[in-house]
Amino acid sequence: MTSRVALIGKPLRRRHSQVMHDAAFAAAGIDARYELLELEPDAVEAAVTAVRGADWLGLQVTAPYKRLVAGLCDSVEPDAATIGAVNSVVRSDAGGLVGFNTDAPGFRAGVELAMDRPLAGANVVVAGAGGAAHAVVFACLSAGAREVTIGNRTVSSAAELAERFTRVGVGSLSAMALDDPAFIRAHRSADLAVNATTVGMIDAGTTMQVELLPTGATVFDLVYVPPETPLLRAARRRGLRAANGSEMLIQQAAIAFERWTAVGGMADVMRAAVAPLLADPDARA
Ligand code: NAP
After folding, report:
1. Which of 113, 153, 157, 199 has most ligand 1 atoms within 8 Å of its beta carbon, as the pocket-test mutant?
2. Residues with Cβ < 8 Å from 94, sequence gap 6 or more?
3. Residue whose CA is closest, atom 41 of ligand 1?
4. How far is the CA of 97 from the centre of ligand 1 (A)?
5. Which terminus of the chain, N or C, has fewer Cβ atoms within 10 Å?
């Protein structure tokens, strides 16, 4: 019996996850396949119910169904509940569905590689307050960051994000507008600047003040299509450490794969498999 995993969402424009997981299944000698299920809202519940069947390992979930799928799971792990986003589901042997989040640990693994140091004790500026920013801020605080300053175009969303995480970690957390003088000032003492907005992917421009960052800072852009955003170009021009979101994508995939199969150590296989897609700025399903 071929086991199954699926990504559900609408629209599904990218096949990076499918390529990574299918390569890992092949490398691990597991008879399984990763499917892309672009579903209408009224088809989601039946699709999730089907995952209780013995041929399923689990699911990945993307916009706009993260909240809906969380409600269809039997349980949601505490980190995913705190972040407010289930992006993966594992089927237990008894057929129960457990929702979890891979973006936060994937971000942590990817960013610590890029920084070449742990997040513990770091001062971080984060642009954005959407789904990805929730995972980023949670990861920074739970890893022991000293100071996290969130800037967002819509201030109320930044404030809601900060409110959600007031009890995570021991670091200080503040939220404001992207152009608030305090957000700009926070750049001067930042060890890490993270773009967790769609700027650079959808809209042109940058969200961070690269010229204000200290020389030892790292710039991490969650965007990975295109592979080099104006933000990363500016950081590299200044000689700062700079990385796009590809390693986060790979690390979170390896984490999900291990949860489904109990086979770890697949990041290298996944990195090699997805490299051609990541090098192609127009890579779409
Ligand atoms: P989202 O929930 O839609 O949030 C979008 C964010 O971008 C919001 O903070 C929004 O601000 C901001 N934004 C959009 N246009 C802007 C503009 N012109 N100027 C300033 N801010 C703007 O999206 P998401 O799911 O968090 O994803 C954010 C990015 O992270 C995407 O590029 C996505 O591809 C990437 N991502 C990467 C990975 C990875 O593994 N590498 C994982 C997840 C996401 P407002 O609140 O003001 O609208």
Report:
1. 153
2. none
3. 245
4. 28
5. N
- Is the CB of residue 60 less than 8 Å from the CB of residue 35? no
Say which CATH class 3-101+247-278 falls into: alpha beta
Q: Is 10 a catalytic residue?
A: no
The class level of CATH for 104-244 reads: alpha beta
- The rounded mean pLDDT for the chain is 96
Q: Where in the chain is the domain with CATH 3.40.50.10860?
A: 3-101+247-278
Active-site residue, from 4, 14, 16, 66: 66
> pLDDT of 64-101, one tens digit each?
999 899 999 999 999 999 999 999 999 998 999 999 99
User: Is the shortest distance between the CB of 201 and ligand 1 below 6 Å?
Assistant: yes
- pLDDT tens digits, one per residue of 100-157: 999 999 999 999 999 999 999 999 999 999 999 999 999 999 999 999 999 999 999 9
Q: Where are the domain boundaries for CATH 3.40.50.720 in the chain?
A: 104-244
31 CA distance to ligand 1 middle (Å): 35
> Is the peptide bond between 11 and the residue preceding it cis, with omega within 30 degrees of 0?
yes
Q: How many residues does the chain have?
A: 285
